[in-house]
Specification:
The strands form 3 sheets. Strands 1, 4, 5, 6, 7, 8, 9 and 14 form an 8-stranded mixed β-sheet that branches. Helix content is 37%, strand content 27%. By secondary structure, the protein is of the alpha+beta class. It folds into 2 domains: 2-172, 2-Layer Sandwich (Ribosomal Protein S5, domain 2); 176-315, 2-Layer Sandwich (Alpha-Beta Plaits). It binds the ligand O=C(O)C[C@@](O)(CF)CCOP(=O)(O)OP(=O)(O)O. Residues 12, 15-16, 25, 31, 103, 105, 137-139, 191-192, 282-283 line the site of ligand FM0. The ligand O=C(O)C[C@@](O)(CF)CCOP(=O)(O)OP(=O)(O)O is lined by residues 12, 15-16, 25, 31, 103, 105, 137-139, 191-192, 282-283. Belongs to the diphosphomevalonate decarboxylase family. Its EC number is 4.1.1.33. Residues 7-164 form the Diphosphomevalonate decarboxylase-like N-terminal domain. Keywords: ATP-binding, Lipid biosynthesis, Lipid metabolism, Lyase, Nucleotide-binding.
């Protein structure tokens, strides 16, 4: 009983930032992302009676500790849903330059969910697979689909209506993303810890939640119309509101380093010069820049010249989960 699946990471344009339920990962707000072609995980899962415990291999190295525990607990969910008690060997290869500030957990859990359910003999709908993936890592549930996907927060407390739905396929719009990798490697607050502290202590948090419905309807309109200015403005403002909540947390924190802000200013300067570009930032110092294909050369050159920038990784819209 073996299967292999491939899933891409995604970049949130409307951020998931807060849980209303930590144990089954239910969010406080809906979010929307673009699946990216450049970064992906390939995972094979083999369930067999020969195994006396789960085994997790990542990029040809045996994984133990917290990362192993999260994978083994996720396999428990798959075993439970299938009514089986077989152990498994999980073999994953990440084409996600973890340093690029992309949540490799997004492509990782989406590929694991797809390969694991297939291997154990469960044929799930995309929504069921997304709801399962959500319990591994929230943002991963959006990677089931290619192109633009919305993770509907749902209202049920058992999470049965909290999963991602497709908004537009990758072919709908060739929107490009440049990941600006900074050389700074200072320890950061994880997205899980960062959103928990913010939800629990930031006086700005309710303001963040209040702004989501309008942001979401605006950005979906912009995607439908392929209106780059509208999508870019909403995404950039949404990211700034998310990060504003961390400044009000107790204790306060920010993910931004000095080079983060230099990149943000450079993107604003590009707009001043008539080159449309917008930034978004997740739970780390790295910046992702949205741009249009015709400006790829000037965008890459400008970003690469910023002191403190280690690398630029370009990406196009990517496909949803596939079985190999
Ligand atoms: O991707 C986004 O919507 C925005 C973020 O990347 C941060 F900016 C959150 C990602 O959180 P995730 O790693 O999915 O958390 P988990 O559910 O605790 O595993």
């Amino acid at each position: 009983m073996k299967a292999t699946a491939k899933a891409h990471t995604n970049i949130a344009l409307i951020k998931y930032w807060g849980k209303r339920n930590e144990s089954i990962i239910l969010p406080t707000n809906s979010s929307l992302s673009l699946t990216l072609d450049g970064f992906y995980t390939t995972t094979s899962v083999h369930f067999s009676e020969e195994y006396t415990q789960d085994k997790f291999i990542l990029n040809e190295r045996v994984v133990e500790g917290e990362q192993y525990r999260r994978v083994s607990e996720f396999l428990d969910l798959i075993r439970q849903q299938a009514g089986k008690s077989l152990y498994a060997k999980v073999d994953s290869t990440n084409e996600v330059p973890t340093a690029a500030g992309f949540a490799s957990s997004a492509s990782g859990f989406a590929a694991l969910a797809a390969a694991g359910t297939k291997a154990i003999g469960q044929n799930m709908s995309d929504r069921e697979l997304s709801a399962l993936t959500r319990q591994g890592s929230g943002s991963a549930c959006r990677s089931i689909y290619g192109g633009f996907a919305e993770w509907e927060m749902g209202a049920e407390e058992d999470g049965s209506d909290s999963y991602a739905v497709p908004i537009a396929p990758a072919e709908h719009w060739d929107l490009r993303v440049a990941a600006v990798v900074l050389s700074s490697t200072a320890k950061k607050v994880s997205s899980r810890a960062g959103m928990k502290r913010t939800v629990e202590t930031s006086p700005f948090y309710q303001g963040w939640l209040n702004s989501i419905p309008t942001d979401m309807s605006q950005i979906k309109e912009g995607i439908k119309e392929r209106d780059f200015q509208k999508v870019g403005e909403v995404a950039e403002a949404n990211c700034l509101k998310m990060h504003a909540t961390t400044l009000g947390a107790n204790p306060p924190f920010t993910y931004w380093h000095d080079t983060t802000m230099t990149v943000m200013q450079t993107v604003r300067d590009l707009r001043e010069k008539g080159i449309p570009a917008y930034f978004t930032i997740d739970a780390g110092p790295n910046v992702k820049v949205l741009y249009l294909p015709e400006n790829e050369e000037v965008i890459e050159k400008t970003l690469r010249n910023i002191p403190g920038v280690a690398d630029i990784r370009l990406s196009r819209p990517g496909q949803g989960v596939t079985y190999l």
